[in-house]
Design brief:
alpha+beta, Rieske Iron-sulfur Protein, 2 domains, four-stranded antiparallel sheet, iron, 2Fe-2S
Length: about 350
């Protein structure tokens, strides 16, 4: 029983006698209300065209991105302000195109689900994660039924425009990433080093004689003449070499062919992510990359002994010229720098 008694504020407060039912009856699902597209074929066809139009809009947005990327030229001869203006215009076209492309796919998918896909309310009770074979077969049948009910197979206009929008959407990303620079195979396989190039100190410059390299000495070197390279910073980034002298009997047999009197030269570019390997531990003869702690053993031809790097540092073969200066006997025998998918 419930009674209503006035409280001090003048409002009514419900009071019960403490008895509660053991359980509440399931109220069931509310009566389903059909949409216009469920009852009117013309409305369904109209909605289908609207969804297809949104997918076509996505295709147009993707094409705008691609065309805009190539149409706005970023010429090297532009002045600074003209360059900024064109850069801003290019970014605006790319941004608007991507927004339209994503919006078309997103809104089209939502409109498709709201107007054409089944919307009956259903109850699904929890069950064990691994069902019986019969239940799994039923699940597959339900998925197939869902595909059928969604109209994906029966509505080729929606299906084809969606496939077109989804197929074109990744293209701008592929174009943008591909245009960030040449492929690694064409860049890392060629450095400024060639046979006969003198090793010069970096950054002070000047050639090095083999007699200057005492036992345990370390030097950072570049090829002579690199300052005159067309893209000097790019060339320096690939040509950086670490020069170290050890006892000849400490070197691995495979590294002796490229050494001279215990002096070895290895690329400074880590084969993991391209950081400079410039920390040398003289007692253990280990080279350490400070970025991710990849460790290379000089006595084992710069083999990786710790860290994420997967390849040894490439060796630069060296010898001396008629004046006793250290020179490259040949270019690097393999690509320098980080590993990539085209490396064997």
């Amino acid at each position: 029983m419930s009674t209503n008694e006035p409280d001090h504020g003048g409002s009514d407060v419900a009071v019960h006698d403490g008895d509660l039912p053991a359980r509440f009856e399931n109220p069931g699902l509310p009566e389903h209300k059909h949409r216009l597209t469920d009852t009117d074929p013309k409305a369904a066809r109209r909605a289908e065209k609207q969804v297809a139009l949104l997918f076509v809009l996505s295709i147009v947005g993707t094409l705008v991105m691609i065309v805009g990327y190539f149409a706005v030229k970023m010429d090297h001869g532009l002045g600074f302000l003209d360059y900024l203006d064109r850069l801003a215009l290019s970014n605006q076209i790319l941004g608007i195109g991507m927004a339209v492309s994503l919006l078309g796919i997103g809104v089209g998918a939502v409109h498709w689900a709201k107007t054409l896909m089944p919307d009956e309310e259903r109850i699904d009770y929890r069950h064990l994660q691994r069902g019986t074979d019969e239940e799994r077969a039923d699940a597959v049948e339900m998925l197939n039924t869902g595909v059928e009910e969604s109209g994906f197979a029966r509505r080729p206009l929606i299906r084809n425009t969606l496939i077109g929008a989804m197929a074109l959407f990744p293209l701008p990303g592929i174009i943008l990433f591909r245009d960030t620079g040449p492929l690694p195979e064409k860049v890392l396989t060629e450095t400024f080093w060639k046979a006969g190039d003198r090793l010069t100190l970096d950054p002070e410059g000047g050639p090095i004689k083999a007699s200057d390299m005492v036992l345990g000495a370390v030097a950072h070197v570049m090829p002579e003449g690199i300052e005159e390279a067309e893209h000097v910073l790019n060339e320096k980034a690939k040509a950086a070499v670490l020069l170290i002298r050890l006892e000849e009997d400490q070197l691995a047999p495979e590294s002796l062919d490229g050494a001279y009197g215990g002096i070895v030269a290895y690329s400074k570019i880590c084969t993991h992510m391209g950081c400079p390997v410039a920390l040398y531990e003289q007692r253990t003869h280990h080279l350490l990359c400070p970025c991710h702690q990849s460790t290379f053993d000089l006595t084992q031809n710069c083999k990786v002994i710790f860290g994420p790097a997967k390849r040894a540092l490439p060796q630069l073969p060296i010898t001396v010229d008629d004046e006793g200066y250290l020179v490259a006997a040949a270019p690097f025998g393999e690509p320098v720098g980080p590993s990539y998918w085209e490396r064997s």
